[in-house]
Amino acid sequence: MSRTSTHRGRRWARRCAALATALLVLVTLPAASTADGAGGADRDRGRAKTVPGRAPADNVILLIGDGMGDAEITAARDYSVGAAGRLALDTLATTGRRTTFSVDERGRPVYVTDSAAGATAWATGRRTVNGRVSKTPGTNRPLPTLLEKARRHGYATGSVTTASVADATPAALTAHVTDRSCKGPADMAECPADTRAAGGAGSVVEQTVAARPDVLLGGGADHFAQTVTDGPYRGRTVLEQARAAGYQVVRDRAELAAARTDRPVLGLFAPDYLPVEWTGAPAAPGGTAPQRCAVRNPARPGGTPTLAESTRAALGQLTARRDRATGKGFLLQVEGASIDDRAHEADPCGQIGETLAFDRAVAVALAYAAHHPRTLVIVTADHGHATQILPDDARPAGLSTTLVTDEGGRMLLGYATAGPGGTQEHTGVTVPVAARGPLAHRVLGLRGNTELFGTVCAALGLR
Ligand SMILES: [Zn+2]
Questions:
Q1: Which are the catalytic amino acids?
Q2: What is the C-alpha to C-alpha distance for residues 273 and 254, in angstroms, rounded to an integer?
């Protein structure tokens, strides 16, 4: 949530249109050149056949661990499968790194991004100011998003998160607001130009219903319960607006499983964020007694679907909507949101539990891709976070805790980007990116996070 200030500037983005030529070349190349051509990815090589006149991929699954830098991944790996073990996300052999910086209103680099500017980067191919959602720096104009483009090209679309579906990362696909705080019609203080009264497109949830993704799963019931203040739905709740747009609304695992595939589905599984999976003692000044994490959170209702379950349900829904005539499948984004949220609170057990929940969603995506090889799977993060893995006899100045890992080791985790009672900060490190499937080789090396936009456009043939 932390923000840095704003400016404007250089155009880092790679626009979809500029890729049309490259795409024409790619579709004429042999399959092995376009399907995960990286060394070490031999098992993927050549499985997805290129078809002349057809985009390299039928489906793209983009999985975002919010605040999931290398330190957060390593802590989760060490705790669960052990230092020499491998998570599902570690099995993707084609890997690279992404810069994550945002910009100020004049376009000058700001070295630490927030989640809104981070998601805007891959959703639109453009860097923006911290806090802004899929609008330009400086001029504050809406930028076309991957989801909007995919929908216009006849793909089914979906977004799954453990946050509110109005939170910054999912919002970057479905809405354009001056500030991420403008989630519902009662939250518009920071977005005067976006209000319906001012001729704007309204709050995130109103715009999201209008963008009409086929599948939208997460929390945020409180935002949908707000009353629309202007426009054709004035005086009705956003939820009523969603129902009028054809959405079936589901509230728990059983209702999600029973959802029909001939209407869009809106899953609202919590008032705002979904309760996390694991709990434990937060890091503290001077450390804590060695602890094991509690792997059940009593505050998490039994009917709450896991991120993996929601991802599986979304894939089922989206597969049922595949266009059999054109072969066009879907674009799905999956966000593990509370890795970030728990790291802000220096809560290592909450953070690791959410990282592992995200990793199980990655496993679901990889299993799907194994049966649908024309699927590009990309796993990455929007920014790094405050976690540090320290020698177990260190006496760090900030907050810390010692976890006893599954393999019996002692792991000292430090959080020192804010003092006691403060909120831990994002960090400006590059983040890992990994991929499997058609065009996976495009994640190799160090590139800007904006380039993910061009990769997804090229994979699905979006212009
Ligand atoms: Zn954050």
A1: 115
A2: 19
